[in-house]
Amino acid sequence: MPHKDPIRRRVYLTDYQRRWRIAHPEEARSRDKVYRDTHPEAVKARNAAHSAAHRAERKVYDAGRYAAQREQREEKKAARAASRALRLEEKRVSKAARQAVQKAEKEASRAARQAASKEKTRIYHAAWYAATREERMAHQAVYRANNRDKVKATITAWRKANPEAIRIQQQRRRARERSLPATLTRAEWEAIKAAYKGRCAYCGKKPKRLTQDHVIPISKGGGTTKENIVPACHPCNVQKFTNLPANPVQLVLV
Ligand SMILES: [Zn+2]
């Protein structure tokens, strides 16, 4: 329904055209194409005018889009970096665990190899000593016979330098002569003295020199063994010898 009022008429026509285009899309498109082909300059001018009119608007829109995309890009980038760091950390942890296991296995196998080799060497040496004992003793006897003075001097010097060892030898001999056990070693004697902190087991004093006292005297069947020996100062040892029994303060026996 056409109107005389140009504004209303224009509104009516615009609405009519819009509805017509919706109702006839194909025809609308072909008419558009015909118009564009026949009026290229007008289309170009119109596009240019539109572009110029909305430049600032488009600029803002593009900048917004770009910023939004950049944010997304940065988020993606951060996520990738985080996941890479996580993977690397997992890799590092698993590698460290693997290496620790390998190291432990390697060390265990090396220890086992060393122990086996040591035992093999020990057996070999023991066998060698056993097999060559007579030969070596004969050789030594010959040497001693040919170097009597030299051997004697060596023995004297050693006895002088090792009074404790001599005492142990003497005590062991005393026990052996009575067919009693005589197994005390010098190391055991040193350990016993250390256990008593260098003190006499009877009076607790700390003399310059400790003697080996048999808790059960050799005369009563006590052997020279770590279980039957305590350190004693000379007065206590002598007193005990004549005046039984005194109770040793037993601390630790090795
Ligand atoms: Zn004493």
Secondary-structure-based class equals mainly alpha
Shape: rod-shaped
Which regions contain 5 or more consecutive residues with pLDDT less than 50?
none
Biggest β-sheet strands, sense, barrel: 2 strands, antiparallel
- The total of beta strands comes to 2
Between the first and last Cα atoms, what is the distance in angstroms? 128 Å
Helix percentage: over 70%
**What is the gyration radius calculated from CA atoms?**
56 Å
**What CATH architecture of the domain at 164-242 would you give?**
Orthogonal Bundle
* String of helices and strands: HHHHHHHHEEH
User: Can you give the mean pLDDT?
Assistant: 88
Counting H and I runs of at least 4 residues, what is the number of helices? 9
Strand order, main sheet: write it out: 1-2
Q: Return the CATH class of the domain at 164-242.
A: Mainly Alpha
Residue share in β-strands: under 5%
Give the oligomeric state of the chains in this entry, treating copies of one chain as homo and distinct chains as hetero: single chain
Which small compounds were modeled alongside the protein? zinc ion
At the third CATH level, what is the topology name of the domain at 164-242? DNA Binding (I), subunit A
